[in-house]
Write a structure and sequence with these properties.
The protein has two domains: 4-278, Rossmann fold; 288-546, Rossmann fold (3-Layer(aba) Sandwich). The protein is of the alpha/beta class. Helices cover 36% and strands 23% of the residues. Helix 1 (18-30) runs parallel beside helix 3 (72-79). It is globular, with a radius of gyration of 25 Å. It is built from 19 helices and 25 strands.
């Protein structure tokens, strides 16, 4: 059976929530026992978002097979069981790179290479490759209708309906219906213009989702229906909600999934949403509450830590607790006195230092780690956070005063963290080499790697298994030359790569919960399957608060 395709576009403004809408619809379809594949097509020219600042594009999400992707893929994995890979996220850069490579190879037999048909054909090929053997494939088109860079993608999905038959394709358009407070009115004109723009390139939406602060009444839906050329029952309110995990239930109550299966001529029973309702009840009415301090340098944009924020919420769900996040700019900590530092961390029951790149704010993060270690506050370091935990320990416990990462001080006497110059690929097929001048894009240790856990450790207790696999995204590693001296000073190496050469997890004794991991556990956490380390960290933080 060939999959049915749902193409999700957006209009009026960016950041309306196309990714959440696609993920939520995927969850609703899975609740009807349908298999779902999801893909994101991004119109920017970068080959992938791996070299982009989090301030530009939010976090970079990583798949098991090592793809650096858009953050919306994180929503897809958290909300559904879709297996995402490198084929799940294509950018204009990737599309053009493939077409140019083919042209240089002579695949086009000397013909003139053009946007239509060559670029659009490549986009369609990537869509077919990327969604897999599923009942329904959801494909989100990034950007906003009317942007010049997204036009080839829109043209490709316009052609797609005629390629595979209109009964197999559905277009869903997400727009904004703003509420004008002074007039106390919802305004439909932006939606009308957005749909007009979409129709001008040959795409008539089958469903319109109207993002709004207020529910749309029957009259407003009828007005949008009239001017946008579709039935009133195909216009839905995408209402603002308190928690993103409320979106699937909100859209279901609007009747979105019923309309989708009807338009695609798919018969299913009623969706089973009891697990979503139970999970949402825990979010809205928790028994406990705890404050976690996130010490980073991208705190001005919360999307920079999207998966991390959600994983902490998931850890709270497992502990029946509301997790309040306190974002702390690490640069601001660097000049604080001991008294002011203590005041800043007052009321915080757990400290987390996430991943990152560059030397800005590094000493502030080390200061926060030292505070957590010396004040016995649960401490969780992820990627760079783990590396700085090793640096702090080396300086203050092993008395290697000049200890640092060679990323931040190439001249350091004690490069506790260093650039690994050579390693073997995961499948053992080839040796990879790099140095400080190696191009940055796609050259890190990426994707899922195995790890063995030490008996009796916090990590082993949390996972309840000896062997795990976790996703990585980093270039620098723990320097094994200093392993013996740090272990002699009390550092515990409780997780190592399967070949036992790479340090993956560190802990210390005589501390309620102090753990740093080289990998990114937040990428695999789901609301109904929270990651074990986040569950354990929140549990320890709750115990810290109660004590």
């Amino acid at each position: 059976m060939k999959p049915k395709y749902i193409f999700v576009t957006g209009g009026v403004i960016s950041s309306l929530g196309k990714g959440l809408a696609a993920a939520s619809l995927g969850a609703l379809l899975e609740a009807r026992n349908l298999t779902v594949g999801i893909q994101k097509l991004d119109p920017y020219l970068n080959v992938d978002p791996g070299t982009m600042s989090p301030f530009q594009h939010g976090e970079v999400f990583v798949t098991d097979d090592g793809a650096e992707t858009d953050l919306d893929l994180g929503h897809y994995e958290r909300f559904t069981n879709a297996k995402l890979t490198k084929k799940s996220n294509y950018t204009t850069g990737k599309i053009y790179d493939e077409v140019i490579t083919k042209e240089r190879r002579g695949d086009y037999l000397g013909g003139t290479v053009q946007v239509i048909p060559h670029i659009t054909d490549e986009i369609k090929r990537c869509i077919r490759r990327g969604t897999g053997d599923v009942d329904v494939a959801l494909v989100e088109i990034g950007g906003t209708v009317g942007d010049i860079e997204s036009q080839p993608f829109l043209e490709a999905i316009r052609q797609f309906r005629y390629d595979i038959g209109p009964e197999n394709v559905l277009y869903m358009h997400l727009t904004l219906v703003p509420y004008i407070k002074a007039a106390e009115e919802l305004k439909t004109k932006p939606t009308q213009h957005s749909v007009k723009e979409l129709r001008s390139i040959g795409i008539q939406p089958d469903i319109i989702l109207c993002r709004s602060e207020q529910p749309l009444n029957r009259e407003l839906k009828a007005k949008i229906s009239l001017f946008c050329n579709l039935p009133p029952e195909a216009v839905f309110t995408a209402l603002d909600v308190e928690s993103i995990y409320e979106v699937p239930l909100s859209l279901h109550h609007e009747g979105l999934d019923d309309k989708v299966v009807s338009l695609l001529n798919i018969w299913t029973g009623a969706p089973r949403l009891g697990n979503w309702e139970q999970m949402l009840h825990k979010i809205k009415e928790p028994q406990h509450e705890v404050k976690i301090g996130i010490v980073g340098k991208y705190t001005a944009l919360k999307e920079s830590y999207k998966s991390l924020n959600e994983a902490l919420v998931h850890g709270g769900i497992a502990n029946n607790a509301r997790v309040n996040l306190d974002y702390i700019d690490s640069e601001q900590l660097e000049e604080l006195s001991a008294e002011k530092l203590e005041a800043r961390f007052s009321g915080i029951s757990g400290i987390l230092v996430p991943g990152g790149f560059g030397n800005r704010g590094i000493e502030g993060k080390i200061k926060a780690i030292n505070y957590a270690r010396t004040h016995k506050i649960p401490m969780f370091g992820i990627c760079l956070g783990m590396q700085l935990m090793a640096v702090e320990f080396a300086r203050n416990c092993a008395k290697l005063n000049d200890a640092n990462s060679s990323e931040f001080n190439p001249e350091t006497t004690y490069p506790i963290i260093y650039l690994m110059k050579e390693w073997t690929t995961k499948d053992g097929s080839q040796t990879v080499t790099q140095n400080e001048d190696t191009p940055k894009g796609g050259t890190m240790r990426l994707g899922a790697h195995p790890c063995q856990l030490a008996p009796g450790s916090h990590a082993r207790q949390a996972y309840d298994t000896d062997n795990i696999s976790e996703r990585h995204r980093h270039r620098y590693e723990f320097n094994n030359e200093y392993r013996d001296i740090l272990e002699a000073s009390g550092l515990q190496i409780t997780g190592t790569h399967a070949d036992r050469k790479l340090v993956e997890i560190i802990e210390i004794n005589e501390h309620p919960w102090y753990l740093g991991c080289q990998f990114h556990p937040e990428f695999t956490s789901k609301p109904m399957k929270p990651h074990p380390l986040f569950v354990a960290f929140i549990k320890a933080s709750l115990e810290q608060k109660q004590s």
